[in-house]
């Protein structure tokens, strides 16, 4: 029986002209004041072949740090080791404001990009994404503003995060540049993109898919590591973890590697955003390329997640 295998080779980021790794490293929990330790994490990701690094201006408050803290810490790493910038495709996001909550007005988008550039200490962000859709922003104005930022050389490509297919299509309809990427939550525990048109739209339009929380917000490997935020596994999570563990034993890898591989096996070629902040576990993520699936094995994990047979 034919198996679905994975390749560690770089691939195009949609139609952006950028080339990226098939796995990315995310900085949602990139926190602290130790620049040396932060640099070790960045280097671990790059050494593991993850050339796409994804951050956001809102990353900070969730870690009890100020707005922009993750970008600022990365900026300190790049100031200490400027050569690292040439090894990465730098992605960030904006459009969330504390207490608003969403703002994609032209003035704020320009302000947000300029602020991110300052915190990061760079001249250009390779991929800039609207973090959450602002329902009070007309997509024509959003498109015009973002394309202006591309023309100004401040951002290289445009993406969206947490958008419905209709919201993505509305923005793309007003853009003269191709939309490069979408970023949905997708994991063996978050399977909605398989059914709501998100992955189908990506394949139809050649959008790169950046899958956030590919480990089910940490539930597949023990839950959210931040104090007081972990929750006991429910029956569904327990069942999916058991299926992933059993499949991993065939290849000598753990649950996380199988979960990443399951995400990457879809023909939309989603890029899982690895969120661990432990250098050893960042390095271990590459074990996902050891894993393959028959169709029956891939679907068995989906059925376990859904809790019912497919039609």
From TrEMBL:
Signal peptide (residue range): none
Pfam families per UniProt: Aldo_ket_red
Chain ranges of the NADP-dependent oxidoreductase domain: 23-300
Domain of life: Bacteria
One Gene Ontology term, aspect cellular component: cytosol
SUPFAM superfamilies: NAD(P)-linked oxidoreductase
Gene3D superfamilies in alphabetical order: NADP-dependent oxidoreductase domain
Name of the protein described by the UniProt record: Aldo/keto reductase
